Structures are given as structure tokens and as C-alpha cells.
Write a sequence for this structure.
């Protein structure tokens, strides 16, 4: 005998994707500021014959593109929010954008590495005064963008469950945009330090060395984002705290039961779905176990399958 129960109140319009309008609005602003600064740096590079400014301008274009991708992901997730083809909502559109943006960060780190090595091996004259002025302006723009995205980054978590998982529920799409801005800000700081070192003490080698350091920093951030987003996309959630909570609920149940199979995956920033197969006494009601599991609010879609222990359904 086998029986199952699912949430009777679950529908496709359940709160798997509530959207993040604040994050979307701030991401659009950050994209606009970054794109404007990109144009200024590229134009200044041509006018002042500064390869440093040109390189930084094209480098910033990759971040403007990534921010645009993040904004498009929010719009797509909102547009398809009620499309029944997405059985668990459209949240993973944002996660996919975050993963793609992380790949762009890897590319940025690679370009920074190559350019820095080229400049280290073949130094070029630098227009320090112009480069410093534009670098400082670029840093101010980066800080403004970081402030915009940080606000949503810290307030755009899941549903505020009281189980201590909030740290795992951040908006990966917003996090990727935030990292792009931080990467640009870090690059600007390193560039300004290098430019002052070259202008004041003649340390021309500082510029490419700082570029190498920036490439390493961006690569580390990209690796972390790839890991987090990839984990969600591949449903690698069996180490999430909610999995142990499910096991604890079943172990503490007055009705003796043993988990024979368990699948947990994420369907929102702080929302999980689960399928639990239990070996228990004949006639046990799956609805009873489902009600026990509902104490954990992050479980928004629960399926319980009952296998009769007397029938030897499970080894």
C-alpha cells in the first residue's frame, strides 16, 4: 500500500516568486550610472590619449552589460510570474542571470589579468592627472551604485522565517549585480593607488601589479557566486538546514515512522519543496505527517508518501 498527500491549498500562484521591485529599480539605476560612466571614460581616453582610461571604460562596459542582464531577469521573472509552464514559479530566472553574470565576472578577471601582464612586460606612458581625475569620478559612481544595490541586498531576503536561515536566502541576481559594482570599485581604488604611486614616486610598475591583484579578487568573488548559483540551479540542497529539520520532525513524531527516501529542493529565495517517503504502520495518514512538517514555514510544497511496513515495501 502506498499513499501520498500534498498541500491542498497549493496552487501555481503560491508565493514562490514575490518579486523584488526595490532591487529591480535600484539595479536599473546602477546600470544607467555605470553606462554613463563607461561613455565618459571611453571618450576621455580618446581625448587624452590615455590607454588606461580606455581600458577601464571597456572594462566597465562588461559590468554595465551584467547589470542590464540582472534588470532583464527581474523583468522576465515578473512577466512570466503567472505562466503555468513554470510549475514552481520564475525565481530561477533570476538565479540563472546571477550565474551568467558570474561567468561574465570570470571573463572580466581574465581580461584584467591579460592586460596587466601586457603592461607589466611592455610599459606604456600614462597621463596621470587625467587618469586620476577620471578614476576618482569612476570610484564615486561605483560607490553610489554599491549604495543603491547594498540597500536592496540587505533588505531583499526571503520571508523572514524564524528558523535562522535568512543568511542562505539572499537574492543571487542582486548579489551578482552588487559584486560587479564592488569589482569595479575595487579596480578603481587599486588603479588610483597605482596612479598616485606612479605620479609621485615614478612606480610605473604599480599599475599592472594592482591590475593583477584586482583580477585575483574578482576571480574569487566570481567563484563564490558560481558556487552559490550553481547549487540552486542543480538542486543541490540536501545540506540545507531544513533537511535536518524534516528528519527531526519525523524522528520526534508520536507515530513511529522511518524516512526511506527524501528529496528537497529550493523554489524561492527562502522557500523549499520536499517529497518524503515514509515506512510506517499500515493505515497511517499522510496528512498527519504533512501537518507536522508545516511547522517549518519555508516548506511551501510538501508531498508525503506512505509505505506500509507490514507489507515490506521498503528495505
Amino acid at each position: 500500500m502506498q499513499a501520498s498527500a500534498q498541500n491542498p491549498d497549493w496552487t501555481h500562484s503560491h508565493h514562490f516568486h514575490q518579486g523584488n521591485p526595490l532591487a529591480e529599480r535600484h539595479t536599473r539605476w546602477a546600470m544607467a550610472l555605470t553606462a554613463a560612466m563607461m561613455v565618459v571614460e571611453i571618450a576621455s581616453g580618446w581625448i587624452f590619449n590615455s590607454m588606461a582610461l580606455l581600458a577601464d571604460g571597456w572594462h566597465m562596459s562588461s559590468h554595465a552589460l551584467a547589470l542590464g542582464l540582472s534588470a532583464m531577469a527581474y523583468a522576465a521573472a515578473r512577466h512570466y510570474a503567472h505562466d503555468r509552464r513554470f510549475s514552481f514559479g520564475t525565481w530561477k530566472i533570476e538565479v540563472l542571470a546571477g550565474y551568467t553574470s558570474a561567468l561574465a565576472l570570470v571573463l572580466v578577471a581574465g581580461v584584467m589579468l591579460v592586460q596587466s601582464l601586457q603592461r607589466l612586460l611592455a610599459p606604456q606612458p600614462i597621463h596621470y592627472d587625467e587618469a586620476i581625475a577620471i578614476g576618482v569620478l569612476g570610484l564615486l559612481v561605483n560607490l553610489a551604485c554599491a549604495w543603491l544595490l547594498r540597500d536592496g541586498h540587505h533588505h531583499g531576503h526571503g520571508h523572514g522565517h524564524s528558523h535562522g536561515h535568512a543568511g542562505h536566502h539572499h537574492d543571487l541576481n542582486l548579489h551578482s549585480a552588487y559584486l560587479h559594482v564592488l569589482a569595479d570599485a575595487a579596480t578603481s581604488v587599486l588603479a588610483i593607488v597605482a596612479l598616485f604611486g606612479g605620479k609621485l614616486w615614478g612606480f610605473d610598475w604599480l599599475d599592472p601589479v594592482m591590475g593583477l591583484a584586482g583580477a585575483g579578487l574578482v576571480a574569487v568573488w566570481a567563484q563564490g557566486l558560481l558556487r552559490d548559483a550553481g547549487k540552486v540551479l542543480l538542486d543541490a540542497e540536501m545540506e540545507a538546514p531544513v533537511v535536518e529539520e524534516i528528519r527531526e520532525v519525523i524522528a520526534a513524531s508520536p507515530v513511529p515512522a522511518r524516512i526511506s527516501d527524501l528529496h528537497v529542493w529550493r523554489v524561492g529565495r527562502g522557500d523549499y519543496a520536499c517529497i518524503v517517503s515514509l515506512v510506517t504502520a499500515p493505515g497511517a495518514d499522510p496528512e498527519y505527517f504533512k501537518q507536522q512538517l508545516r511547522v517549518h514555514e519555508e516548506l511551501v510544497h510538501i508531498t508525503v508518501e506512505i509505505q506500509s511496513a507490514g507489507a515490506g515495501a521498503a528495505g
